[in-house]
Amino acid sequence: MRIIFLSSRQGKSLTLTFNTWAKVALSLCVLGVPLGAGLIIGANSDVGDASLRAALAAVQVELDLQHEELQLGVASADKKIAAYSQKLAEIQARMVRMDALGERITDIAGLDKGEFDFSHTPAIGGPVEMDAPADSESIGASSAPDVSKAISSDLQDLFAELEARMDNREQQLDLLRVMIVDRDLRRENTISGRPIAKGWMSSRYGKRTDPFNGRKVWHLGVDFAGKEGSDVLAVASGIVTRSEPYKGYGRLIEIDHGEGYVTRYGHNKTNLVKVGDLVKKGQVISKMGSTGRSTGPHVHFEVYKNGRNVDPASYIRRTVR
Fold first, then answer.
1. CATH for 268
2. In angstroms, rounded to a whole number, what is the distance separating the alpha carbons of residues 184 and 164?
């Protein structure tokens, strides 16, 4: 193989003769460089496509995982909703029964319904409050929605509200119990009503004609006539301080009710309580008789306040609420 170079300036020529190995080397130089460049470019292109496909595959895997987690979250939320719904129904049923019980107690006790109104939500209020600060752990967290946590949070808020309402109802019921107990104690300790179950008033308090000598005398109590052996009742709770025959009273019972009040029950046929006994309002303490200075079966009833004899009439007519 020959290569001839011509010079236009000097009119000379240069001839190069290549043997076989020179030919091969020249061919490699001429053809190898473009071919190698093409191979390198192709190889780099294949690497870029593979990286892109790998990145796309990773994104798809992440999406599939998030979708699976979302489905699991929805399924879990559905189960929780069913459980919470059942629990919510039970709590609401209990609240309905509690409200009905509260209203019934209010009616029976004769209390002011405006003060204990179980049919309405309790009144609450206060100044404008600032929003609760965001949880620092949630800042920068994933923005993907957590359905289960969101639903659970809403239901927990609802249960918290119901629990607060139930606490309010319990407080009202506790206050009702205290008021009823206090009222029962006042009723028990307050002198009121008649000292007999059956009978009629045969003589009033004050000036009257003595049935034995006909003179005008002061009657210290009220007489209730009835059938011999009928029940004589305590008009209030107290402690028996006397149970014995006494002067013209015949068999007498005396009860101290506290706060300076004392009652007496005279002319009994039989005393059923003894000194030191604690008696309740309405308890049968004796049987009606005609012992002592008496013209027939009756109970002589007296009331003392701070050691002074008073007219029992106002206490007999008294109504305790």
1. 2.70.70.10
2. 30
pTM summary value: 0.52
Residue 244: strand, helix, or coil: strand
If we measure between CA atoms, which residue out of 162, 144, 143 comes closest to residue 154? 162
Q: Which of 262, 271, 319 is nearest to 291 (CA)?
A: 271
Measured CA to CA in angstroms, residue 15 lies from 2, 3, 7, 19, 20 at distances of 7, 6, 12, 13, 17
Angle at which helix 20-109 crosses helix 147-189, to 10 degrees, equals: 20
In a domain, 39, yes or no: yes
Distances in whole angstroms, Cα of residue 133 to Cα of each of 145, 149, 279:
20, 19, 63
- List, for residues 54-100, the tens digit of each pLDDT value: 777 777 777 778 777 777 777 777 777 777 777 777 777 777 777 77
Last residue of some domain: 44, 69, 94? 69
255 neighbors 270 (Cβ within 8 angstroms): no
DSSP 289: B
Question: pLDDT, tens digit, for every residue of 148-165?
Answer: 566 567 667 777 777 777
Two tokens at 258? Answer: 């506290």
Q: Which domain holds residue 39?
A: 2-69
| pLDDT value for 27 | 60
Answer whether residue 143 is part of any domain. no
Residues 298, 224 contacting (CB under 8 angstroms): yes
Distance CA 73, CA 279 (A): 68
Q: Are 248 and 293 in contact (CB under 8 A)?
A: yes
Count, residues in the chain: 321
Q: Which residues contact 222 (CB under 8 A, 6 or more apart)?
A: 201, 203, 204, 205, 300, 301, 302, 312, 313, 316
